[in-house]
């Protein structure tokens, strides 16, 4: 039996339950032998992605672009908010407290910057690309301290709200989900910068997932958008549906990371 999981976008209990419902529907629709498992933080996501019995789980695009044995990319989510233009893309929001001193990215320089983990596109690599021009102009370090690794976008938000960091990068789709489910709490944050859109993390299976099984998973995921019985689930998850994706879609993330390194900003600092 293989496993499925939506840890990356299970931002709270309500979202986690909606993802479980959706994945169980997909398993039934695909007619595959699989179960939905819990895999809460701080358990390491790379260990989940490395499992040989993985059938369907969200995986960050940056490690996909670095993988020597590429996972079986199934499909990518399409968030329903108008800003996503019906495309499987996302970006990084740099957030700060609404009542704090940081109003722009420049005002975050010299302060405390949170981050998730170096293998995260939205929580590390996208910010590194955004900051590379500043590092080239001003030199490094750009910050008084780095706060992390915090592992999840939710912990970056918690760190900024608690005053442990002055700013931090947050996956835009995760941020929308958090705002949807906890509007009063997230109202204390403001977005001070955004990165350019890039391909959103897809659902993947292990590299050894048989092609015929991958095709069943893919077809079931692509049918989520039209499933009337999932309307409430899609609403809870701010999800339009899923779109086709391939490993090659994520090559741009490796190229951007290499460009930031060439520009002299190899690590966030």
- Provide the CATH superfamily of the largest domain: Periplasmic binding protein-like II
Overall number of structural domains: 2
| Low-confidence runs of at least 5 consecutive residues | none
Return the CATH topology of the largest domain. Answer: D-Maltodextrin-Binding Protein, domain 2
In DSSP terms, counting alpha (H) and pi (I) runs of 4 or more, how many helices?
A: 11
Overall spatial form: globular
Order of helices and strands: EHEHEHEEEHEHEHEHHEEEHHEH
Rounded mean pLDDT score = 97
Name of the top-level CATH class of the largest domain: Alpha Beta
**Share of helical residues:** 25-40%
* Strand coverage percent: 15-25%
Read across the widest sheet, the strand sequence of neighbours is 2-1-3-12-4-13
Distance between the termini: 43 Å
Structural class: alpha/beta
For the sheet with most strands, the description reads: 6 strands, mixed
- Known CATH architecture of the largest domain: 3-Layer(aba) Sandwich
- The number of distinct β-strands equals 13
Any idea what the radius of gyration is?
18 Å
